[in-house]
Amino acid sequence: RLAPNSRPNPHRSPLGTGNYDVNVVMAALGTLGLAAVWWDKRRPLERLCLPHILGFLLNVPSRVTLGTLSLPLSRPHWLGVRQLGDTFYNLDSKLAAPAAIGAEPQLREFLRQALAKGPSELFLVVAREVEEAGTWLTPE
């Protein structure tokens, strides 16, 4: 819907292999009454108000592979993190199965390490009301 008649489509990788840009992610979440809030990595992760956050989307560098051969290149890759019960899970599609991260302290360390890897970005998935009220962030 963002650029249906554009060739090439400016919202996905030139090879058509995914890595849609954040506009696609935001539009998709908007259809569900949700929003993606960009996280400024200069802020401490301790300021995240985890009870108000439904999930996390990370755009991180990922190694390029051809079959079993790993090339000395990387390209951006989206992965999700979601809480089920008391445990947060890495829902990266490149994993064979969801990987348990752990509780809140382990989540914050996981996010810290992911953001330290080259050009990476973090988006918080929240309800539209949470985005508008700004309650995804704890007061200073």
From TrEMBL:
It is found in: Cytoplasm, Cytosol. GO terms for cellular component: cytosol. It holds the Pfam family Josephin. Its EC number is 3.4.19.12. Keywords: Cytoplasm, Hydrolase, Membrane, Protease, Transmembrane, Transmembrane helix, Ubl conjugation pathway. One of its GO terms (biological process) is protein deubiquitination. Residues 1-140 form the Josephin domain. The chain crosses the membrane at residues 20-39. The keyword Cytoplasm applies. It catalyses: Thiol-dependent hydrolysis of ester, thioester, amide, peptide and isopeptide bonds formed by the C-terminal Gly of ubiquitin (a 76-residue protein attached to proteins as an intracellular targeting signal). Its main location: cytoplasm. One of its GO terms (molecular function) is cysteine-type deubiquitinase activity. Cleaves 'Lys-63'-linked poly-ubiquitin chains, and with lesser efficiency 'Lys-48'-linked poly-ubiquitin chains (in vitro). May act as a deubiquitinating enzyme. This is Josephin-2. The gene is Josd2.
